[in-house]
Prior knowledge:
The chain is α+β, with helices and mostly antiparallel strands. Helices cover 21% and strands 25% of the residues. Strands 1, 2, 3, 4, 5, 6, 12 and 13 form an eight-stranded mixed β-sheet that branches. It has a five-stranded mixed β-sheet with strand order 16-14-21-18-19, with no helix packed on it. The protein has a three-stranded antiparallel β-sheet with strand order 7-8-10. α2 (58-65) packs across α3 (67-81). The chain is globular. The relative contact order is 0.14. Mean pLDDT is 83; it is low at 1-27 and 222-232.
Amino acid sequence: MKKLFEVFRCALLLAALSLLLLPAPGFGALGQELGDGFYLLDSSVDPESSVVVVKLTPGEMTKALTDVTRGEKLQEITRLLYTKFADDWDFLFFTHFTSQVNEGNQHWRRLYDTVDGLGYPKDEKGYGAISYGSPSKLKGYAFLSSAWSFVDGTTLHEIAHQYAAYIVSTHGFVGTTVLAHWGVSNAGGRLGGFKYSRIVEENVGGALGKTKYQVSLWPEREPNGITFAHPGFYHSHNNVPYSDIELYLMGLISPQELRNKSFNLDIYTDAEQTFDQMVEGMFTATTKISYSIDDLIARAGPRTPDASASQKHFKALTLMLVDDSVPVDYATMTDILKWFSGPITDTTYSEDDYEHASYNFAQATGGLATMQTGGVRQSYLNLSYPLYSLVTAQSEGGRISVDKTSVRAGETVTITVSPNAGWSLSSILANAYAVGSVTSTSVPISGTGNTRTFQMPAGFVLIEPSFSSGEGP
């Protein structure tokens, strides 16, 4: 009997130990392997299908985390992505799960946009997106520190960089530089600034015109709630919605709506701040430049397309970079993404304390725009060998078209040339970019006249024509 009891006791211990060794729900839930280290998550963990997992070696992860080489590594990953998935996303979000230190912090890379009136050169031909493997759609990507960047990090801030703040020169405190942020201003949005202000003292220290201001993002509390980081005013948490000027630049509100609010963008060009003033949300300045919406339009042109025709629904893909050095809670990641792209009524991370509340995308835009993060599985091409993207660049004097835009290596592509009246084709070039490469190789083109052909290589191809008046080759 004693021996039987010991056997039973050992069995219980083994069973308990096996339970301890089981992964927690949401951990280690990789589903379908797609090749090259790409995975879709199991539907039990990612029912919305919102994530692609990319497994990296420690050396590859180091490159992805290091400023100097990050762009090259993420470009390589993105090019591989578009050999497996359709060109369906406006934005990509990279998160990483590793024991290594993130040396480059978070950032946004603007790749492609045809919007006028932002104060930033638009990319007519989409070369930025093309270089990352997207033929026509990818606007930009964010590199984020963790899954929680969607809740209390910089995700909303990074998205704003696609459209702002380029429309006017901005300034930090004296001795600092501000690029693509609102700096010391009343912009009061995701890219910095304050929203409310009051004059504390005029002619400070006897200096004529030197004024001390106290500023805040919130009206219902004492005006000392400014979030400050060098340089200028910079808001790194998702506790601030998009401001009026940001909503205008995103194409979500019209100039008339700003006129109706008597909108002015106030830029302080010589602001100074001591540490004690920073704690109280104060600074001093002598010079303030104010821009109405019409002043801004006069500088950069009208936002085109305007709010009546601009894009209001966006699709985004989250890529989780992992290297097996730490356990990954995939379930939490997918739950957060469901909230971030959820409706304006989702109050999962809302709090009464303004400073600690978080906005999802719909809430941050006041319900004027939506974000879709699910449906990734429907974009998977499911090919035994990949499709490569084909892009045509247009030129003055005519246009070209191709009989297919997603092509397998070895297939024949037919180019049709359509010159304008009085013009003819003078040259046509095709350049191929292999996956993971930033350099191109020339692709031979056959044929004469207005019909040409070439064999598709293993990589994406950019075709560029040139037209001239008179007879062509």
